[in-house]
Amino acid sequence: MPVVIIDIPSGLTKSAKAQLHKDAFESMHHAYQMPDCRVYLREWAAEQTSFDDVIGAAFRPICHFIVPPILTDESRRTLVSRMSSAVNRACNLRTEVVKLPGGEEVSTQWVLQFFFEVPLELAALDGLMAIENPMVFKDKH
After folding, report:
1. Could you tell me which residues are beta bridge partners of residue 48?
2. Strand 54-55 and strand 62-67: pairing?
3. What is the pLDDT at residue 55?
């Protein structure tokens, strides 16, 4: 039941997308230990995106996790680290150094990740609520 939708630039090779699917699935399955982990890649052409008001600027991927609220903070950190690495590999992202107003510098590859945590009482598979579904191992974490 865990889902990740990853916004990526169009034009990645078939093998890069296949590897991203594999890495994303393994990361999600490791974190949630549930069947039916879904990975969706959503591609964007350069003219459909803008970053800091620059149309077609270097792409900044986004991962949208639609998941039950069962991970510990450490498990969540591990998941975002693994997912960031997978997206970086697939998209061949450059590291940028951003200078903050206070003078500090931060390195980033701009992989933004959001968790949309849905309680098991508010999710269903077919006609069965997730909280009642024997495939959902909600007591694992």
Report:
1. none
2. unpaired
3. 95
Q: How far is CA 29 from CA 16, 74, 95, 123, 128, in A?
A: 20, 15, 28, 18, 21
- Sequence letter at residue 11: G
Q: Which DSSP string corresponds to the chain?
A: --EEEEEEETT--HHHHHHHHHHHHHHHHHHH--S--EEEEEEE-GGG-EETTEETPSP--EEEEEE-S---HHHHHHHHHHHHHHHHHHHTPPPEEEE-TTS-EEEE---EEEEEE--GGG-EETTEEGGG-TT--TT--
pTM for this structure?
A: 0.90
Helix axes 14-32, 73-91, angle to 10 degrees: 180
Give CA 109 to chain center in angstroms: 14
Give the pair of three-digit tokens for residue 19.
């590897």
**Amino acid found at 29:** H
Q: Does the pLDDT value for residue 4 go beyond 60? A: yes
Indicate whether 139 pLDDT > 80.
Answer: no
Range 11-39 average pLDDT: 96
Mean pLDDT throughout 45-60?
Answer: 94
